[in-house]
Amino acid sequence: MMSSQTLDCYILPTQPHPLLLPIECVAEVVAKPIIESLETAPAQWMQGHVNWRNQRLPVMKFSGLHTFASTDKQAASAEDDSGKDQILVVLNPIPGAARKAYSALLCEGDVQQISVEPNLNFIELPDGLDKRYVDGIIEIEGRPFVVPKLTAIAVAFTYF
Predict the structure, then answer these.
(1) Considering the entire predicted model, what is its pTM?
(2) Which of 63, 64, 38 lies closest to 50 in space, CA to CA?
(3) What residue spans define the domains of the chain?
């Protein structure tokens, strides 16, 4: 049964479209995080680790999960060289996931809050986005937003 109430969400700046996450999924938003880089990343999405509240969390860049990031090096480079401040979004453990731990998404730019109405327009998934990690694309005021499949992302984190 669909609720008629709005849902409070965060907009996370990512490529190629921003992510839309319910506020309940986010433990904390950290400006200018100190990330321990990896000399060689075991996966393209893996950015390193961060110490958060005495826990060592893996850090993911959402765009690294998708084929456009690996096939379009110029776009990936442009994203990295954007000069925007890095923001770390610490995700709460995902209910029902095999791994009951916090994890983190790395974003570049400002994280914003929005209230989303229940009557959303879903649009076609663009080329390059991996369906394993995307529940859907919704359109709000003419802008596309990615709704990530958090359980699949939690599975990716189980390897690190």
Answers:
(1) 0.81
(2) 38
(3) 7-157
